[in-house]
Write a structure and sequence with these properties.
about 160 residues, 5 helices, about 60% helix, coiled coil
Length: about 160
């Protein structure tokens, strides 16, 4: 049984990102160095593969713990995602309004925008305020909520000591 230690969610999320990055590095080393010139093997790819499998299992356990801890705020997480999607969509809305000369023939076209640029800008600012409110609430939850993680992940994470307490 792995030795477990308690860290808050905000640090666990950083740890998860580091583990995902480390897995990606291992993947690239396995892919790149599996077949190499004889007498030029820099890496023991079989050992790297074993390390990858252990790390992947630890990542699964970490994600399960994060998911369980996030249940009380799952609605806020989904709401935040939808607010961000709305801001992205609003940024793509065509607000062309008024007369315009179109094409090579110079045809005059009159555009009518239902949402004008100032309308879009106001709505984006309103949604961004909502994003900030939700993010503040999530940050507070992540700071005060503790979860158990495999202590060996912390030793291998390359996170500074103050980031893992």
């Amino acid at each position: 049984m792995a030795e477990m230690t308690q860290i808050n969610l905000s640090r666990a999320l950083k740890l998860k990102n580091r583990v995902v990055h480390r897995l990606s590095q291992l993947d690239m080393q396995i892919i790149t160095y599996n077949s190499d010139i004889e007498d030029n093997q820099e890496y023991d790819v079989r050992l790297l593969y074993k390390q990858r499998m252990v790390l992947a299992e630890q990542l699964v356990q970490l994600k399960v713990a994060l998911n369980a801890a996030n249940k009380p705020i799952q609605g806020l997480i989904f709401e935040l995602a939808e607010c961000k999607a709305l801001v992205a969509m609003l940024g793509k809305v065509n607000t062309k309004h008024g007369p315009s000369i179109e094409g090579f023939s110079g045809v005059r076209t009159n555009y009518v925008a239902q949402f004008r640029k100032p309308d879009i800008d106001r709505e984006v600012r309103r949604v961004e305020q909502e994003i900030d409110r939700i993010q503040d609430e999530l940050d507070q939850f992540n700071y005060r909520t503790m979860i158990a993680v495999d202590a060996s992940l912390l030793a291998d994470s390359d996170l500074p000591p103050d980031a893992i307490r």
